[in-house]
Structure formats: structure tokens, C-alpha cells
From TrEMBL:
Domain GerMN: 80-168
Pfam families: Germane
Protein known as: GerMN domain-containing protein
């Protein structure tokens, strides 16, 4: 009797195990069929896209910009973020120099209507070191790198969310900057260098190049022939200029230079005091406002 009960118990246990296996098999088939018939897709491991970027750094003297080409795997970042991340890392080429000051943080970067807005921490100002030339290479390394993107036309740089009147000495951050191709090819001319070059062109009778250094508002109808005639009759006997002193004042992106200088002719030397020249940054170059030139007072 005991053996019969034992056998019945074993048979029941086997039936239970078989039933459980059958239920499990049915459940697995049901789940697999549902997955095959559903629209749910299991996302694969995310793959990046290899893209080429042009990043601009300063040359060894930090006078002009040189490009580095980098191949980067882009995941979920915007192209603007990648460019700024690489720029803030610094150059790979040991002959080039970083342009972003140390310990700078980038709070945000967005693009709207062709303008990219980059917001930096205060270290962008407080950790900056250098003169106007380095000021220019820092700003245009950002601008030129970002405007390599076809959808970016200008770049507006902010510090702690603010648009600064002056970054370091002369260059304003109030307005957005356009691309500057000339700083890639050569050094950025300061306002003082522009005035000196202007005087040199006049002394050498190279009036065409002197004219090209002028910013001519649309309402000032003076073409080159008129300008040439004016200088030919008034400055034709000048053989040299010497700048003795100058001061610089920056207001709303316009530079005013007060210049004391000597105008040298074959017969005499005329000394002018407080000659006033206003300059405007146009497409990365300082231009002398034609209608704002005041030659100053002749001193005895």
C-alpha cells in the first residue's frame, strides 16, 4: 500500500513538472510572437558619425590664426559644441598657441537666425593676458572656427550672460562678429598701426591704398577720383610723417584717436596737435571714418 502511494506521488509530481514546462513554453511563444508583430524596436548601441572640423589657433607669436583640421566622432553634441570643446582643449601642433584663457567654462552655446551665441564664465576676461593683437586672435579664433559651419554667419560672445563694452582694451563684445579672413593670412592691424600706415601711404603718394583704409558711409559721396584730387592738391608736397603722441578712447565699438604728429615737406615741418581720427571695425579690419577726420591745430 505504501509503495502504491509512493508511486502515485511520483506520477503526480511528474505531471506537475510537465504542466509547468508546457505553460512556460506557451508563454515564451506568446511573448516572441508579440515582439515580432509589434512596432517596438530595440535601439542598437549608439554609433557616432565621423566628421571633419576646422579649428583656428594662434601662431607662435599670437599675431594671426592658423587652422588645424580634426576628425571627430560626433554623437549627440551639436557641431558648435564640438568646435568650442576642441578650441578650448588647445592645439595639437606644438608650434601653435591656445587662444582661450585657462580655466574658462562655457555655460551655453546656441545658434538662431545665423548667429551663434557663446556664453563664457568670467575667467574669459579675468584670465586673459596679452595686448590688442592677442585680443583679436582670441575673438577671431572663436568666430572663424564657428563660421566654418555653413549655417553660422556671425558669432556673439557673452561673459556671464553679458555683452561687454570692451573685452580687454579695444575690441567690443556688444555686437556679433563676422568672419575675418585677413587675420588668417597676416597680422591684425591695431588702430595706431592703421593711422601710421595711412600716413605712410600719403607720404609715398600711394593714394589708392590710403583710400582703401577709409570707411565711407553711404551718405558720403566721395569716390576715389575726388579723394585723389583732394590729396594731390593739399598733400602733394608731403614727404614724411612722424607721430609724436597718441591717445585712444573706445566708445560703443568706435575708436577715437587723438594724434600729435609732424607733417614734413621739402621746405618745412608742420606740427599738428590733437588730430582726431575715428575708426570702426568693419569685417575684422579697423577703418578710418572719412567724415570724422580732423587734422588738428597747427602749432607754432
Amino acid at each position: 500500500m505504501i509503495n502504491v502511494k509512493k508511486n502515485l506521488f511520483i506520477i503526480l509530481m511528474l505531471l506537475v513538472i510537465i504542466l509547468l514546462l508546457f505553460i512556460r513554453c506557451v508563454d515564451n511563444r506568446y511573448i516572441n510572437n508579440n515582439l515580432q508583430n509589434s512596432d517596438i524596436e530595440i535601439a542598437p548601441f549608439p554609433e557616432g558619425t565621423l566628421e571633419e572640423y576646422v579649428i583656428y589657433f594662434a601662431n607662435s607669436n599670437r599675431e594671426h590664426l592658423v587652422k588645424e583640421i580634426r576628425t571627430i566622432e560626433r554623437m549627440n553634441e551639436s557641431r558648435e559644441e564640438i568646435i568650442m570643446r576642441e578650441l578650448m582643449k588647445g592645439p595639437i601642433d606644438s608650434s601653435l598657441r591656445a587662444t582661450i584663457p585657462p580655466r574658462v567654462r562655457m555655460y551655453s552655446i546656441t545658434t538662431a537666425d545665423g548667429i551663434t551665441y557663446v556664453n563664457f564664465s568670467k575667467e574669459f576676461v579675468t584670465k586673459f593676458s596679452g595686448e590688442e593683437m592677442q585680443e583679436a586672435t582670441t575673438i577671431y579664433s572663436i568666430v572663424n572656427s564657428l563660421t566654418e559651419l555653413s549655417h553660422v554667419n556671425k558669432v556673439n560672445i557673452l561673459v556671464e550672460g553679458e555683452r561687454l563694452d570692451v573685452y580687454n582694451k579695444l575690441m567690443s563684445l556688444k555686437e556679433a562678429y563676422s568672419r575675418n579672413e585677413k587675420i588668417i593670412m597676416g597680422s591684425f592691424m591695431s588702430p595706431a598701426e592703421v593711422i601710421k600706415q595711412y600716413f605712410n601711404y600719403i607720404a609715398n603718394k600711394d593714394y589708392r591704398r590710403a583710400y582703401d583704409l577709409l570707411y565711407r558711409p553711404l551718405d558720403i559721396n566721395i569716390d576715389y577720383s575726388m579723394y585723389y584730387h583732394l590729396l594731390r592738391t593739399s598733400k602733394g608736397d608731403v614727404i614724411d610723417y612722424t607721430i609724436r603722441y597718441y591717445s585712444v578712447n573706445q566708445v560703443n565699438g568706435t575708436i577715437t584717436m587723438l594724434v600729435d604728429y609732424e607733417e614734413i615737406t621739402e621746405d618745412e615741418t608742420r606740427y599738428y596737435k590733437n588730430g582726431k581720427f575715428k575708426l570702426k571695425n568693419e569685417f575684422g579690419e579697423w577703418k578710418i571714418l572719412l567724415d570724422e577726420i580732423e587734422v588738428g591745430e597747427i602749432q607754432e
